[in-house]
Every structure is written in C-alpha cells, then in structure tokens.
Records
---
Amino acid sequence: MGFLRFAGFSVVRAWQGFWRNAMMSLAATATVVLMLSLLAALFIIISGLNSGLEFIESKVGVTVRLADDLPEIGRELIIRDAEALPGVATVTYVSPEEALERLREAYRAAGQELDTGGANIKLYSSLEITLTDASAGSSVAAALAEHDGVERILTKQDEYDALLGIINVIRTAGIVVVGLVGITVLFMIINTIRIAVFSRAPEIEIMRLVGASDSFIRWPFILEGVLCGLIGSLVTIVAVAAIWGPIQPIMVSVFQMPIAVSSQFLATLSLVLLATGLGLGALGSWISVRSYLAATT
Amino acid sequence: MPSLLRKPARPPDADAPVISMVDVGVTYPNGKVALSDVNVALAAGDFAFLVGPSGAGKSTFIRLLIREQRATAGTVTVAGRDLGRMRRGAVPGLRRRIGTVFQDFRLLPAKTVAENVAFALEVTGAPRATIRERVPRLLSLVGLDRHSGHLPSQLSGGEQQRTAIARALVHDPAILIADEPTGNLDPVTSWEIIQLLIGINDLGTTVLMATHNQEIVNAMRRRVLALEGGRLVRDEDAAAYEREY
C-alpha cells in the first residue's frame, strides 16, 4: 500500500509538473524526437548494410583452379589441407565436366544456348571453398597457393574489404552524430528538469521541513524527465511505423534483409527507441535532481 | 504518538531534555563565528523565547535544531538523537518530530488551507484515511474549520499563520519551533497566535519561539534565551525581554 501511494503521488506530480512547465517540457520532448529519429535512420541504414554484408559474406569464398595434370592423390591432399585450414566451412571438387554443365546452365538461364562450334572444350577442374569467416579468404588463399598443382586462386576478398570499410565509416559517423545529439538531448532534459526544480524550490523546502524523504522529492522529477523521453519515443515510433511500409520492400530487395528479420524489425527498432528515450529522460532528470538535492539540505 | 486533542500522560523520561546543546559552536569556512560555546537544555513541555538582535545567531540556532546545518563544535541532541551523528536518510524522521513555523508562513499559494495541511501528510506517505481524519481536526484546533476551502490569498495574515501552525502539527510533533511567527502580524493577531502557541504548549508540546517582540516576551514571563554575538548571554525562567535590540 505504501509503495502504491508513493508511486501514485509521484506519477500525478510528474504529470502536473510536465504541463506546468509545458513550453520547456515540449522543447525537451522535441529534441528527444529529433535524436531518436536520427537514431532510427542510423539503425535502419546500418541494419540494411549489415544484411547486405551478411549476404555477401555468404557468397564470398575461394575458388582454386587445379592443374590439368594433377593426379587424384594430389587433389585429395589439397582438399584435406584446405579442410584443415581455419575459417573453412566446406570444400567441393568441381570436375571439368561439371564446370561445363554449369556454364551451359548459366547460358540457359540467360535464354541462350552454349555454342562451342563443335569443338571439344575442356574447362579447368577446381575446388570451391566456402568460409565460416569471410575475412579468412586471404589466409586460405595464401596457404593453398603453395601447393603444387594449384594454377590460380580467386577470391572476392578485396571487394568484401572495401564494402566492410564503407560500412564501418557509415557506422562510426552515425554513432558520432547520434552520440552528439544524445548529449544535446541529455543537456536539454537536465536543463528542463533543473528549471522545474528551481521553480518549485519553495515547495521542495516545505516538503523537507515537514519530513518528506528524498525519494518523495526526487521521483516526481525523475518521472517528469521519463515522461519527456516516453512521449518523444512514442512520437518517433509512430512516425517510423508510418514510413516503414515503403521501406520494408527496399530492405528485402536491395539490402537482401531476410523477410523474417524485416517483419520483426519494426518491433525491435521500437524497443530500441523506447529504451533510449526512457533511459535518456531518466538519466537527465536524475542528474539534475541529484545535484540540486546534494546542494541543499 | 501523543494526541493534540488531549494532554498526554507524562512519560517516564519527561525530565530528559528534548533539546540539548553542549558547547555548541558554528564557524563558517571564512572564519565567521555564528555560534560559540552555547549550552542549553529544554525539557518536554517547556516554552521558551529565543531573543537577540539581528545577526546574534538565532537563525543558526534554529537551523541546527532542524538539522539544516551541522555544528562545527559541540553536541546538539534533539528528541534523544545526536544530530552530529545523524545520517542524511534519518533527517526526514527527525523533522516529523519537529513542527516549524516561519514569519512568512511559507504556504503554497495554489493550494487551499486544507490542501496545504494535507500536503505535509501526502509527501510523507500518510494514508488517505489518516489525512481525512487529521486535517479537519487540526483546522478545528487552530480555528480555521470554516476556511478549509480558501486559498492563502483569501486569508488574513493571522489566518495564514494559523494554517502554517496546523501544518506544523500534522505529525503530532514533540517540538514546535516558531521563527518570528508574529513578525508580519498586527498586535491583536499576534496575541491570538501567541495564545494558540500557549494552548499547544499546554497540550505537552515543547515550544521554542524566536522573536523581536518585546511586548509579548514581557507579558508572557516565560523562559528567555538571549543570544548576542553568537553567545548565549542569558537563560532565565519567567524573565523579561530586558533590553531593546
């Protein structure tokens, strides 16, 4: 009962305080919306790029062309060595006949028929290596290059590294921007709550004189900051939900985001926005009230 | 908890002081001495005036008792608690045992008389039933039952001070500290407030009243504590104001 009375008292006082200082409260809420909108945009972009990266990672592998005169025992040796290398998932031998058949399939898929002009062409035999870790491509290639019977090794490591570099730059820049806006929001909330605290200094003084504990003084203000964060995050979630309809197909088709992930994405993003808004609101007001209470008795 | 409506039975340790200062001094970091070597004890049920010129240390004396400030020397004990050793978290409990009244009333202007009194109970987590029972009882005690729905701005100075006194009594405090409670009031209203404080004292509450009002002190002939330059220069029972500050 005591806790419910305390909670009820704090919530009612927080609500009254929010609207008593409406201009500042709404300004702080608007900055929360701005910051969370940037966070949502960054979250969407980075999630899309990460999905794209994962898709590319699944495609990145190492192709080892084998010499025509490589005996079967030599090929088995290379396969065994390749399977033992760190970062290697599977090793598949592709015979010249199978390679030719694949080429024909590729032509058929493009609506054409492979025309060899009657010549009996023979393609290279090769090993197709898939990786558990896409960044291991270079080391796998280097290790296999030393084997006799290996003609040439193809990897997409350079393309992968370039894409990874771009994503890292975007991610770092985004985190810096969101961090700076987050700090601004924090200061806005600290300032808003500080003004609220000072405007109610006589009331706080009376509360202290009649024996109110610090919790009774502190929590209404903390909840007032939480209210700024809550309203700000709900507004942002509604806005993101409104534009998610046209964004979702792009995430699936362009960034190759799995459909199962994309259908859960809005819920995940909403939780991130809600937690960030509430956390910033609580932290800002807690800092503000704490410093005031510490300075007074 | 003693009731305000009937005189409590005399407790076994009634002679133990409810307020005690032993060799108390307050020196600010800049070297200014606010209080020095103050020794005083008030027993349960005492009524004392605290007098002295401006800057004598009266406000510091009161701030020490409600633990708004700590002594830099000596020991301050209130209701059996050593305030020098008291943790911050225990201060609200102390303040529920001390009612405080000020010259400027310190009422919340947007709340009615009843809400101002109830506020002191709400912010200490009192149940609604307690608030509903206690607020009308206190307003009746201070003669404001017909004004419970009025805002402070609709009240006279005396009525505002009665509201402040009712609020100070919500926790049935053992001690009532009044800092210049008649400072903003006309002589007739001042006497009414003094009579109210005497009535509260008769019910067993220790009352300490800081005042510059020579007429009241001389007429009441109660205990007088006189401060000058931070020192307690006089502590006499049934005394007069003696000199004009």
---
Amino acid sequence: MATFVEQVREMGIKKAVVTKSDEIVERLTAGMNINDIRAALRGDEPRRPNPRLRPHADGFWLHIRPSFYHTGVTNIYPTFRLGWLSTFMLVWETITGLILMVFYTPSPLVAYGNMWNILGNVPLGQLFRNMHRLGAEVMVLVVAMHMLRTFITGSYKKPRQFTWATGMLLLLFTIFLSFSGYLLPWDQLAYWALTVFISGGAAAPAPAFVNDTVLLVLQGGPALGADGLLRWYLLHVLLLPLLAGIFFFVHYYKVVLYGISLPPGREQVGEDTAKRVPKDERTYFNPDILTSELMWTALATLFLVAGALWLWDAPLETHADPVVTPLHVVAPWYLSWSQGWLKLADKTLVVGFIPLLLVSFIIMPYIEVGKSRRYADRRVGLTVAFLFIAFMLVSNWMGSPEFRVQSSPDREVSIQLLPEEGPGGLKGIPYEHMTPGTYSPGQVIDGNPFLTRGLELFQQAMYQQSCTLTGNPQWAPCNVEELENGGHRYSNFFTTDAMPDPIAHLEIVEIQPNLKEMTLHYEVTNPDTGEVTETVWIRPRHAFSNYEEECRFLNKSCATD
Amino acid sequence: MQIKIVIGTIAFMIAMMVLGYSALREPSRMERFTDAELGRSIEAGAEIFANNCATCHGVDGTAQECFDTTGNQIACQGLPLNYNGLLCGDVSQRMSDMGWTGTKHDYILTTVSAGRGSIMPTWSDAFGGPLRPDQIRNVTNFVLNYESEALCSQPLVTYEWPESATDFLAGPDITAPGDPARGQELFTVTYGCSACHGTIDGSTPAAIGPSLVDIETVGATMVEGMDAQQYVYHSILYPSDFIAPECPTGPCAGPPSVMPANFGARMGENPQDMADILAYLLGQ
C-alpha cells in the first residue's frame, strides 16, 4: 500500500485525508468503513460481502457477541433486558468504584475521615459515592429479577442448567460484593451490620473450632478492627470482582453457546430452537442490537446519575464505635430476610439452612426435569415460586425493627424523634427555628411551623407509646393486664408496653455558640406504687450539621416541611 | 432503530447536562459538607464531654457546677474551659503561661490526649486512655466552640498570688484585715465551702472535708514553719499540697485532694474575697 505522502502526491491532500480516515475507521471497527457505518445507521441493506459481520470475526470486543439474534428474543419480553442490565451494573460499579478507591484508605484511623473528605472536599465526590452505593443496590435488585424471570420463563431447563448454576453463583457474588462494600465507610451502620452478620455466620452447624477460626479470619481479631477492615476491603475490590468476572464470562459463554431461549409459546414442548434461526427471523447485532444496547446504556446512565443527585443519598452515620451498639441494627434490605429468620428460629438452624437453600437452588434444574417450559404445564412450580417470593417479602419485613424489637416506650419515642444516627422527626428542624424553651407534645408555636410540626410528630410518637387511666383525652385508654406478681401491664393498640399517663416535654437550650441541646423528658407514675420514674434523652445539635438535607433525601418524616 | 438512536442520544445529553449542573453546585455543596463535618464533630464532642469531662470541668465548662454519676453535686476538680484565658486570642493567656508555641487546637488536643499532672488523666488510647483519635478531635472541637464574642469581650482576670499570706494581705489591692461578716457569707454561700467543711462553730458538722472548728489554733500545728494563716491561705490555693489527717469519713484522701483546685482562679477576680475568708476563719 502506498504511504500517506505518496497518496497526497497522487490524489491531492483532501482526498488523501478522506481515504486515510476511512482506512483508520475500518481498522478500529475491524471491518466497517465510514460509508458502511452510515449505511447501517440509515437502515440500508448491507453490501455484499456483508461488512457488518466482520467485527464479530476479526474484532476483540464483538467476537464474544453473536452476530444475530432470534427476533423473538429482541423484544422487552421475554428478557426484560435484565441480563444486559446486570452486565451494565457490573461495569458501572467498577468505574465508580475505581474513582472512589482513589480517595480511600482501608484503615480504621482514616476511613471514616475519608468519607467526609469525599463529601466535603472532592468535586463530584458525593455524586460518585451516591452513584456507587445506589448502583450496588440496583445491581442486587436487577440480578435477582434476572433470576426470577429465568425461572418464570423456564429458561433454566435443559440445556441451560449450568448457565443457571453459574447465575446463582453470580447472584451470591453480587450480594457479597454489595455487602462487603457496606463496611468500608467505617461508620456505625457499617460496623454493626457486619458484626451481626459475621457473628451469625459463626453460629454455623460446624465444630466449634471451625466456627471460631472462621470468625477470627473474617474479623481479623477478637472484634472487627484494622485487620478485618483490610480483609473486607480486599474482598470487595479484589477477590469478589475477580470471581464475579470469571463466572460472568463462563455464564455469558453459555448464553452465547445455547442462545437466549425463546418465549415458551414459540416452540414445541421439549424442543430448543434458539439456535436454529430462520433467515427471516434474524435480527442482526450490527446495527440493531448494538444501537438498542447503546440506548439502554444512555437511559440507565441517566437514571443512575439523576437518581444519585436528586432522589437518594448514601447514608453516613457517626464513626464506628465498638462499645456503643445502636438501638436498631438492621441488615441491608437484600439480607433483611435472614435477620427476620434469626428472630424466630434457632441461630444454628438458620445459618445451616441458608447454604442448603443456595445449593438446592443451584441443583434445581438437574432435579426439576419437566420437559415443558409452558406456563400452563408448570402450575405447581410457578405457585411454589410465588409462595417463596411472598415468604421472602414477609421475612424481609420481619427483619425490620417493626417486628419483635421493642425497647422501653420512652426510648422508642426518642429514637423516632431524635435518633443517635440519621434523620428523625425533630432533627430536621432548621437550627434557627429551634427556639430555646420548654414545649409539650402537640403544642402549636405561632410563627414557627417547623417546631409546630416537630411537636406534632412528638405527640404522634407519644400517642403510640402511651395510654390513659384517668380519661386524659390526649392518650388512648389503657388496656390493663394483671401480672403474676400483682403488678399491671398497660397496653394500647400499638404496643404491649405503654406508658400510663406520661408527662413529657421537650426542652431546647443553647449550650454553646451555634450548639443547642434538645432534651426529651419523660415522667411516668406507676399507678400501683405511686413511684415516679423520670427519664431523659439528650441530643446536641449544631447549626452546621445539616440534617435537613439528609431528611429530605432519605425521605424520613422530618419536620422540614 | 432510528428512534432508539434519537432516544439514546437525548438521554446521554441530558445525563451529561445533569452532571454539568451538579458540577456547578459543587463549591457550595462542598462547603456545606465541610461545615457539617465540623458540626457533627462538635455534637459528638458534646456527648463525650458530658459523659467524661463535665464531672471535673462542670456541666457548662466553667468548673462551677459539677455532678457525680448519681447526680449529686460535687466539687469541681478541673480548670475552667469555657474561659477566655484559655480560648481567646491566637495565643491565649494559658498557652503563654504554659509556654506553648503551637496552635490553640493542638494545645487542647495534646492536653486532652496526654493529660496534665496528677489530676487530668490521659484520654487518648495512644497514651493508655479510653478515647480514639477521632473522639479526641471531637472533644477538642467542642471545647474550641466555647469561644464567642461575648466570652472574649469579658476582661481577662489574672492575679499573681504571693507566696506568703502576709505579703498578700500587705498588697496594694487588699484592705487588711478582711471583713469576717462578708467572709462568712462567702464561706457558706458564694464558694459553698461549708457544704464539705461544715460551719466553723461546729453547729453543722463537716460532711466530706476536714472540720475547721478551731482552725485558728489547729492550723498552726499542721505544717512546720507555717502559722495558721499561712497554712489556710496555702491550702485554699493549692489543696493537694498538704492533706489533712482526719476527715469525717476517715483519713482524708489524696493527694490529689478532693477539694477543687480552682479557688485561686475564682478568687483572682476579686482577691479581697480571700482576705475576708481568712478574717472569718481565723477570727481576726
């Protein structure tokens, strides 16, 4: 071939540049020149030999993608684009995660400070943290939905049993990836979620020395500390992504090998025609599938960027403290079901049951060998599946503090209004509206809608934890239950442990410039003994702390409106 | 396919515009979060202070009102922190007294971390204390937050107490002898000495500290070379130097003495208080 200089001499500078550009584009696309790309985008028929197939043969990126799909699987149904979306989320998490890694050191001395540095000192730092955290939750959801849809359309059946098995492992890795990232901010949320999880794991039905060793390895010491953080960090950024990457390629290779299964109604029972695509049923990857995927990439990017900016903020609680256990330690929503089970059943039983469940899911396609993928033929299987989903949703709710976790009634009120961590009813009041003084629940403060709303929330929270024996219209009447020791238990509609005729008030005092202290006082008289119990709950609040923003984003009922 | 290209292009452009928009608000957002970090650090410091420091430095940091864990009022052992001599100016009075050439932040951080003398414990886990480095920073931020214009516009009181009581009473600001009636008022009400020592006529017995009945004669026998006046004067200023043998609950504890060490600082605002109390106690 002629050199560029010779081409310029031969055909003039303009034509030589065009020819050269064409050549470069053809090399970059591994087979398509500028005219081929334009023709593809216009929707023209390809020339012969078809240049749109060459990137699949010669190019690295497309050689793993099939050159055409059955038109039957290119609609939203049956795939809902969930497999593609899972891949997108993996790439998304890798990119945002790499950027966050630049500003992170896995050490208890600085990790928490790094979070504030990312939030307050790194341009777009909060956005990237939000995008990564939001992406992690979306990814778990997407992968789980992908599995659900594969089950419903019966796509796990022969010959795709192994694809299903690797998919189950990928779901497991996704959950672990998400959860291992949980610890890294080294705040109270992270520390206690992990502590509970690890100690649960150590209750496995195994000899004590095995459990002890596992616990030691996962915590890096007698309690989670510097070594433990480093281990979970390496799990999060190295081992789990590596495993997920390896199994992703195995999984995807099997998808290409067997093709995406057609909607169950499209083929005869017992047949698998995904790879026998008639000429008129072909949708070529290049350009149809490719443009479609690029469109979904753009839409998903838009959703995640806008969601991270306007809809949701990644939480950050106070510094991890091994000696202070928050009142409500909750697992993330995708593991909440296990917490629900732990409340009901024996720890060892639950921890032993979960791996059994996982294994039975993995081997399910080898045992459930019914030939038909049609819905009408799989009524039992689908019913079991939906019952299982319902069971998991109920279990998830049981994992929340609403179920069977109750401390003293005054603490429940305090936690709703002024929790140690995160936003709460009274925390969202803007600082300048926290007028020092003493206020009673439900009091209306003229000219101060924020405080009025806060006191309304105070009244609502108190109402749920209080009852009256004297006919006080502020509280509901008590249901009285005689106890064996001669005492009484008072309950109302909401709780079995209510305060009888409590006297409560909120006190706001300024203790330093720009620092006020909110104190919740409770005074309860025992109707049997006349004994008065006084409790207080004190939270300081600084003018700069900006809980208003947290309230708005985490969508808790705060008195910001 | 064309519609997909259009949708994809528009979605991508909007995503980039959203990114650009968020970049525009970054400077003010980052400032808010930098402030929030400080605000929350001060809040965390306030809790640590209330749980650990207020027993000696007082609930409001002025070393005036201290309570033990059961809520009984006790004598404050610590120096005032909500105090202009510590917090006002780039180099505050106490920093120059101590010869500290670093920053105020580091002065407080180091004192909290490593402790001071035999009374202020070491708090940092680096020196065997209970607090982590982040908690030390939180307490430091909290103490620094006492600084305000109102605090710093108050005159800074420093009074150099002479070594000997005789020199003190001969000093230019003192009317000697003091006024015993005012001394009694100061002893029982203002400084609340009688809460621990009882009354000097014995009508209310001593509760915690040694009884001061006949102190004008007993005081002379306590330390060789000191008369009663010098002994009482010295013990008010430096309670831990001499520990009395007998307290109502047995032998007196210490050193350090349970008696607050900050009467010198408090009386420095009006040294005549000392003269009046001496007059009252010693019956002059």
